[in-house]
Amino acid sequence: MKLRSKAAALLLLALAALLLALLSLRARRAPEPRVLPAALQRRPAPVAARPAEPRVFPGDLRPRSPPRRPPRPHPRSRRPGAAGRHKLARRPGEAQSFRSVLPPDLWIHLAVVACGNRLEETLVMLKSAALFSHRKMRFHIFTEDALKPEFDKQLRQWPDSYTKKFEHRLYPITFSVGNPQEWKKLFKPCAAQRLFLPVILKDVDSLLYVDTDVLFLRPVDDIWKLLKQFNSTQLAAMAPEHEIPKIGWYSRFARHPFYGTAGVNSGVMLMNLTRIRSAQFKNSLIPTGLAWEDMLVPLYQKYKNAITWGDQDLLNIIFYFNPECLYLVPCQWNYRPDHCMYGSNCKEAEREGVSVLHGNRGVYHDDKQPTFRALYEAIRDFPFQDNLFQSMYYPLQLKFLETVHTLCGRIPQVFLKQIEKTMRRAYEKHVIVHVGPNPVH
Ligand SMILES: *[C@@H]1O[C@H](CO)[C@@H](O)[C@H](O)[C@H]1NC(C)=O
Ligand SMILES: *[C@@H]1O[C@H](CO)[C@@H](O)[C@H](O)[C@H]1NC(C)=O
Questions:
Q1: Stretch 95-108: mean pLDDT
Q2: How much is the pTM?
């Protein structure tokens, strides 16, 4: 009996020692996250499977004692940065191995046109792309000369673990066809720029264009994958401008042709540039097709008195005449205040959560849609090296508690479902990368 218990004690001691050794090994390899969020302490049930419960936070993620903080009076005065302070020492060999994994022709290409006071907003958009994406990206940033140094400076201040995920290129605002002076007069200079991307980025096969007021709530990789779903005639993908034609803008007011029953929104546009460059587009000008770059000027001249929203209207006209060229993506890939401010009308977002948020109408910077602003500020203020759950998700949940009086705030799960899933994936990936023998990319 005595001998048995002694052996058992020894065994227990050995086990404890082994456990300690394992723990310290793991702690050395995976220093982050420091504290496991409650939701991760057990094997997570897939969040997406949770039934939609309006107004109710998922039980196990409910903040313990929500300290209701009053909204900050001048949130914009806080710089997006904090980033620079968290710069980590480069881990030797890391950046290199990341690059060698993927040949440049497989990179994701992300383009944005940023002018005027859109610098901070653009950087937050790029940050959301860098935070959650896996595949190497190239950022094509078209901007005024005055903003270039600041873009360069701020992007270089991000920690290596993020900057190694992308390269960025800065371009001036240029027009490749027609008379540049005329274009600048016709549109606000920056608005028309994106129509010329197929001509300017001649070496790029495919491109995701987004407005500066877009935020990725899941890896850019996921929207990039849609390129492979194009059939042989499709060359661009966009989401509808509205889910309910009856209350949509185009169906009620447009004085020009537009795509489908409610038009398309061009704030998130996935393009196969190779196809755009080689296609002949049907049009209302001449019976034969026209190449993209030969079509823009005459089309603009024909419709300029009828168009209100500039380049987006031109795109709607183009895809009205060429509907077989468009791949229509569901609204969760371009989720705007329109999808909740009259009541929730984006079914895909109710099911899967918002994948790409588009805070148009300036809602990140005023008090009209606090849910949109809360997401913007959570990503802007996230210090890169912290734990995503502790420093982004939980504060975000708290902020959402203050928005339940708004129509969009009544459906927090629509906004939070996808980003929570994304963070879970990022967290698990992080652990696998640090503990596993082979880094995954
Ligand atoms: C774009 O289209 C071209 C021509 O059809 C095709 O070769 C290429 O693979 C497409 N790119 C992507 C990313 O699907
Ligand atoms: C591709 O899909 C579009 C939109 O559904 C359709 O109009 C077009 O006919 C399709 N093209 C082919 C070749 O099937």
A1: 68
A2: 0.77
